[in-house]
Automatic annotation (TrEMBL):
Residue ranges occupied by any DUF3592 domain in the UniProt entry: 66-141
Record has Transmembrane as a keyword: yes
Record's protein name: DUF3592 domain-containing protein
Annotated organism of origin: Aquipseudomonas ullengensis
Transmembrane domains' residue ranges: 22-45, 148-165
Source superkingdom: Bacteria
InterPro entries for the chain: DUF3592
Keyword list, A-Z: Membrane, Transmembrane, Transmembrane helix
Length: 166
């Protein structure tokens, strides 16, 4: 059976509800997402930095207003300005890791914002894409988070091979 026929057959089996085929496609999808994320985090690690000014930093509500406060969702919001090669930019990205939390877990967002590098003069370190300086972050993911993301990308394929034996 050639490669195309094998792939086609896998999709046919998945469409008919075959658990092994569904698990394989799910493992491939999750692995592709996580491995591409690990590569992106590694690229960001090598971006240059500049000093910017923090305009706004808050934990804000996300989505509609909930009547039960514990069901309200929150996210971190930032706004900052920075300059690259004489050009001024405004950024609003905190980290490549998007975190949304419930009211009970919003302390996670506050902890994430502690990762912003603020100097004694009030300036912040801004990491920017040298090819597209409009894209920037205040926090980049270090080697440990990169490794965790990489392992999360490999784990579904290992789990599939272990569980299904091939």
């Amino acid at each position: 059976m050639d490669s195309f026929a094998a792939v086609y057959r896998t999709f046919e089996l998945a469409a008919s509800g075959d658990g092994k085929s569904l698990a394989l496609l799910a493992a491939i999808y999750v692995s592709a997402v996580m491995l591409s994320s690990a590569i992106y985090l590694r690229l960001i690690w090598h971006w240059p930095s500049t000093t910017g000014q923090l305009i706004r930093q808050e934990v804000a509500t996300f989505g509609g207003k909930e009547y039960v406060q514990s069901q309200q969702n929150y996210l971190a919001k930032v706004e900052y300005t920075y300059e690259v090669d004489g050009q001024r930019y405004t950024g609003n990205r905190l980290s490549p890791w998007k975190v949304m939390a419930s009211a009970n877990a919003r302390i996670v967002l506050q902890a994430q914002m502690q990762g912003i590098d603020i100097d004694s003069a009030g300036g912040v370190t801004v990491y920017y894409n040298p090819r597209k300086p409009t894209k920037s972050y205040l926090i980049r993911s270090g080697p440990i988070k990169q490794t965790v993301t990489l392992l999360a990308g490999v784990a579904p394929l290992i789990a599939y091979a272990w569980y299904f034996g091939s």
